Amino acid sequence: MATRTFIFWLMATLLPAVHGLRIEASQDFPLGSEVENIALRPSGSVLATVYTFPHIYEVAPRSNSTPKLLHTFANTTGACGITASSTPDVFFVVTGNFSFQTFSPAPGSYAIHRLSFTKCGRPVVEQLAALGTIAQPNGIISVPGTPYVLIADSLGGFIYQFDTKTLQLTTYFDHPLLKPTRSDIRFGVNGVKLSRGFLYFSSTNQQIVARIKATGAEAVLAGSPEIVATSTPVDDFIVNDLNGDVYVAESEPNNGIGFVSENAYGSVPVTIAGGPNTTVLMGPTAAIWAKGAVGKTLLVSTTGGFEQFFTGNYTGGGTVSVVHLD
Ligand SMILES: *[C@@H]1O[C@H](CO)[C@@H](O)[C@H](O)[C@H]1NC(C)=O
Ligand SMILES: *[C@@H]1O[C@H](CO)[C@@H](O)[C@H](O)[C@H]1NC(C)=O
Ligand SMILES: *[C@@H]1O[C@H](CO)[C@@H](O)[C@H](O)[C@H]1NC(C)=O
Ligand SMILES: *[C@@H]1O[C@H](CO)[C@@H](O)[C@H](O)[C@H]1NC(C)=O
């Protein structure tokens, strides 16, 4: 095989989806809205939290759909983590005051809420508890079939377990890989997911995704995590429950989706959508699967570019984008 043909063949083999990926973006969220996290309703529509305003939006996963303001929280400046509970169409949402000027949280400002819907579709939000002892709640995930929610603490570098029935909050996992390691922008553990008998987590300053055997229901988790992805400007991520492949929402400078297949754990993610020098996915913050489309269709929240929230010079609205992998 001639070298050029070989290289072309190699790239086509290694990166089968790069050129074919179709991406559909919602309409922009209002300028100044930092779209932080997303969850899926049983209907397939998407709930999206905004961290720079205390807002939750609902948006259909398709091209040019309009984000619809669903709820405004009182007594807080933003909404961050959101996860579906074990009960259909009931969600847990964390709120709190975070400054994008200083990249720091207001201690004692965080709380967790339950969001459900009445028969006629009206959202009902009820505060469950203040999360005063958690320095900076970030990613959250429900533990299937239990009342537990795992909550990542980006600043403290812990994963907490919150019992939504007894309202008890305990330290679930403590490990050096969860800790912030920079002194300016301090972000340790960020996203948390349960998949295939493992707890997967991302750690932003350490630029990794890792996993450790876990059910999420243990009182305390112990052991040594295995590195899944390295050298990645990771925010949140999602696992393909069917085969262990991991898709990483990569912030600046990558502005794209990084991919690590199950047989390449420990490597640097391959960019499969967006990427440096592209603007199609500016500031990805989270990724989930579209309804009934594990391994096929990603839903990705983007901020429209992180820098604007620091400078206050707003340059473009965030989106919920649909990334077709097949
Ligand atoms: C958080 O923000 C809300 C709304 O501005 C404010 O009322 C509250 O005092 C703040 N809490 C803290 C702990 O800063
Ligand atoms: C405001 O939020 C804080 C932190 O979650 C909580 O402790 C406090 O009770 C809230 N105040 C009101 C009036 O809801
Ligand atoms: C992005 O653009 C810079 C400046 O033009 C260039 O040096 C770099 O190689 C580009 N990166 C990619 C991944 O194309
Ligand atoms: C705001 O951002 C735009 C686009 O990047 C840039 O052209 C402009 O100079 C910026 N303005 C300020 C005041 O920084």
From TrEMBL:
First and last residue of the signal peptide: 1-20
Lineage of the organism: Eukaryota, Fungi, Dikarya, Ascomycota, Pezizomycotina
Keywords: Signal
Classification via InterPro entries: 6-blade_b-propeller_TolB-like, Hetero-Diels-Alderase-like
PANTHER family referenced in this protein's UniProt entry, alphabetically: NHL REPEAT-CONTAINING PROTEIN, NHL REPEAT-CONTAINING PROTEIN-RELATED
UniProt-recorded name of the protein: NHL repeat-containing protein
Domain of life: Eukaryota
Gene3D superfamilies: TolB, C-terminal domain
